[in-house]
Automatic annotation (TrEMBL):
GO cellular component terms listed in the entry, alphabetical order: cell envelope
The gene coding this protein: nosZ
Subcellular location: Cell envelope
Protein name per Swiss-Prot or TrEMBL: Sec-dependent nitrous-oxide reductase
Key words of the record: Copper, Metal-binding, Oxidoreductase
Highest taxon, organism lineage: Bacteria
Database matches in PANTHER family: CYTOCHROME C OXIDASE SUBUNIT II, NITROUS-OXIDE REDUCTASE
Enzyme Commission (EC) number: 1.7.2.4
Organism: Sphingobacterium zhuxiongii
GO molecular function: metal ion binding; nitrous-oxide reductase activity
Length: 662
């Protein structure tokens, strides 16, 4: 009967929330004023002001939009196969999807972080997370391509990730699902959660020159769920803050059993103290691990995988001054830090208020030992001792907060479907606008930096209902752009997004576009299979492997006639685009290929493996429209029976072999 009571309570709550979600907010028809289109309009031939990097959610990709137009500029493949660009299909990119579980062709990309210098975006890299198979990726903003992916051991879900310190010293990740760690015996009863399940915070160092990542250390904590995080800045630089839930340490029916406590916690981590403990030798080296580190080299245009087996672990329960808990209204989702670093905003998603904590008061509370006991060996700071104040009755279901740099904050509310603007100092609500519908994350350009660029805020909504033309049971995800340059927030644009948009960040386009790479210099191509001119185009047999060194230029491949391939052969098409002109990619596909195509940039080499399964003549062609004679950019490859005496020949512009009847 008790289980039934819990289920009925959960159903009642779900019904209430769905009622909020399905209802159109008041004033919907009047929400957009007459000058909205003008504010969002970007004339033909003009550039957007901002690059907007938006997570693709369950697509596993990263989307790039222009603001204020909302135009989709690019989809960057990261954790999921992308046949459009050959990502994960070419021999050069397959290693990027390698993990300790093997080649994983999909993941769930939730959060986005642009690299920072002195607390402001520097436009060098974008870091994103894989939630399912825990990984962090680094995207290079000179090429807008994924340059590196690092798997995280001892983690069961990677949601609270990949948040970065103010000088990109570390990219930090908290495990979403506490689990028995990899270096322990994981064959334990699930209901032994409190005894055997552990939380892990991973601190990944970033090379300041080239961006290369390395798992510097991990912090082991009591078993809870980590939701989101933010680094301190300014006065709080050297600290990190994580929202936690399931302090009940439940392992079943979490919608009920992980919502019993009135308060969960924000975990405050002193990472400068962690560095001190590491130097003092207080970390434990764990060596029976396996995790993948994948890197992509833009000189050879190819990736490699290195498997690592060690990390260093600090135990938060044993090391004094490393971690502290701050009570927060139950089930907090977002935790955000204002531009000065003084104010830490918690968002209990089941609460009807917003607590704002003071870093200065937190420090005084620690010094004065104003604790109310411990959780898992970690001190709990008294709520009132760290609290600056509460924003009362701001809305229902606060999730995330961004800052405008003018002393104000804007918070998203999922249940009441709105954005609410409030003043950080007096905690008074200034303005509110409805969203359509059930907003999750929101984004102000630079909203997590020391100097926000507060012209717009974007709401990323979970539900759209009637906002776009219907497309069957699944509707497009939604983003809504608001002008916040004045005292009042004004909705000026709706635009659909790929996947499920979670987190996003945006920065001034001028800081990125001038650094954008236009071509790869052909003379710098170090791919061992590159053919840097048509004179180097050829076909070679090595046992049952046939290597086709193919060049592509407007509007032909060299060679374009290939014979002497037999059933049982593995054919490797090494395609080099020998163009040296911007915006001149070439594609490559062959009939019957079971993987994908290639999309090859100027000066680049990519390889497609093809195993023919029948005798015949198969066409191959360019898939990317490149010239008026694009349709003529094709070739043929002949497959003969195994043991055939047809010689291996290749040609361009000449019919070979001479006796075509053979």
């Amino acid at each position: 009967m008790e289980f039934k009571k819990y289920v009925l309570a959960g159903l009642a709550a779900a019904t209430l929330m769905s009622t909020f979600q399905a209802c159109k907010p008041k004033g919907a028809s009047e929400a957009v004023s007459g000058n909205a289109a003008e504010k969002a309009y970007v004339a033909p031939g003009k550039y957007d002001e901002f690059y907007n990097f938006v997570s693709g959610g369950f697509s596993g990709q990263l989307a790039v939009y222009g603001l204020p137009s909302g135009r989709l500029l690019r989809v960057i493949p990261v954790f999921s196969l992308d046949p459009e660009k050959g990502w994960g299909f070419s021999e050069e990119t397959k290693p990027m999807l390698e993990t300790s579980h093997g080649n994983v062709p999909w993941d769930d990309l939730h959060h986005v972080q642009i690299s920072k210098t002195d607390g402001n975006y520097d436009g060098r890299w974008v870091f994103v997370n894989a939630n399912n198979t825990p990984r962090i990726a680094r995207v290079d903003l000179t090429t807008f391509r994924t340059a590196e992916i690092l798997e995280l051991p001892n983690s069961g879900g990677n949601h609270s990730s990949p948040f970065i310190t103010e000088n990109t010293e570390y990219v930090v990740a908290g495990t979403r699902f506490s689990v028995p760690t990899d270096h322990q015996d994981g064959d334990v009863p699930i209901n032994s959660y409190k005894k055997n399940f552990r939380g892990t915070l991973s601190f990944v160092s970033v090379n300041k020159d080239n961006g290369n990542m390395d798992l510097a250390f991990q912090i082991e904590t009591p078993g809870v769920n980590y939701d989101l995080s933010r680094a301190g800045k300014g006065v709080s630089h050297g600290w990190f803050f994580f929202s936690t839930y399931n302090t009940e340490q439940a392992n079943t029916l979490l919608e009920v059993n992980a919502s019993k406590n009135d308060k969960d916690f924000i975990l405050a981590v002193n990472w400068k103290k962690a560095e001190e403990y590491l130097k003092a030798g207080k970390g434990k080296k764990v060596s029976n691990l396996k995790y993948a580190h994948n890197t992509y080299d833009e000189k050879s245009h190819s990736a490699k995988t290195e498997f690592k087996t060690e990390t260093i672990v600090l135990n938060a329960e044993e090391l004094e001054g490393l971690c502290y808990y701050i009570p927060c209204p139950k089930s907090p989702h977002g935790v955000d830090v204002d531009p000065t670093g003084e104010y830490i905003v918690g968002s209990g998603k089941l609460a009807a208020l917003i607590p704002v904590f003071s870093f200065d008061k937190m420090q005084k509370a620690i010094a004065g030992k104003q604790f109310e006991g411990k959780f898992g060996g970690i001190p709990i700071i008294k709520y009132e001792a760290a609290l600056y104040g509460e924003v009362e009755k701001p809305g229902l279901g606060p999730l995330h907060t961004e800052f405008d740099g003018k002393g104000n904050a804007i918070t998203s509310f999922f249940v009441s479907s709105e954005l609410v603007k409030w003043n950080i100092k007096d905690l008074k609500v200034i303005d509110r606008v409805p969203t359509y519908y059930s907003t999750g994350h929101l984004m102000i350009p630079g909203g997590d930096t020391k100097n926000p660029d507060a012209k717009y805020v974007v709401a990323y909504n979970k539900i759209t209902k009637d906002r776009y033309l219907p497309t069957g049971p699944e509707l497009s995800q939604s983003a809504q752009l608001f002008d916040i340059s004045g005292d009042k927030m004004q909705l000026i644009l709706d635009f659909p997004t790929i996947g499920e948009p979670h987190h996003a960040q945006a920065m001034r386009a001028d800081k990125i576009k001038e650094r954008s790479l236009k071509i790869f210099k052909i003379e710098e191509n170090t791919n061992p299979y590159a053919a840097k001119g048509e004179k180097e185009a050829r076909v070679e047999r090595k046992g049952n492997q046939v290597h086709v060194y193919l060049t592509a230029i407007r509007s032909h491949f060299a060679p374009d006639n290939i014979e002497g391939i037999q059933l049982g052969d593995e054919v490797y098409f090494h395609v080099t685009n020998i163009e040296q002109d911007w915006d001149m990619p070439h594609g490559f596909a062959v009939k019957g290929a079971r993987n994908g195509e290639l999309l090859v940039m100027p000066g680049e080499t990519q390889t497609l493996k093809w195993v023919p399964d029948r005798i015949g003549v198969f066409p191959f062609y360019c898939t990317d429209f490149c010239s008026a004679l694009h349709q003529e950019m094709q070739g043929y490859i002949r497959i003969s029976k195994k043991g055939s005496n047809v010689p291996l020949t290749y040609s361009l512009g000449t019919n070979l072999p001479a006796d075509s009847a053979n």
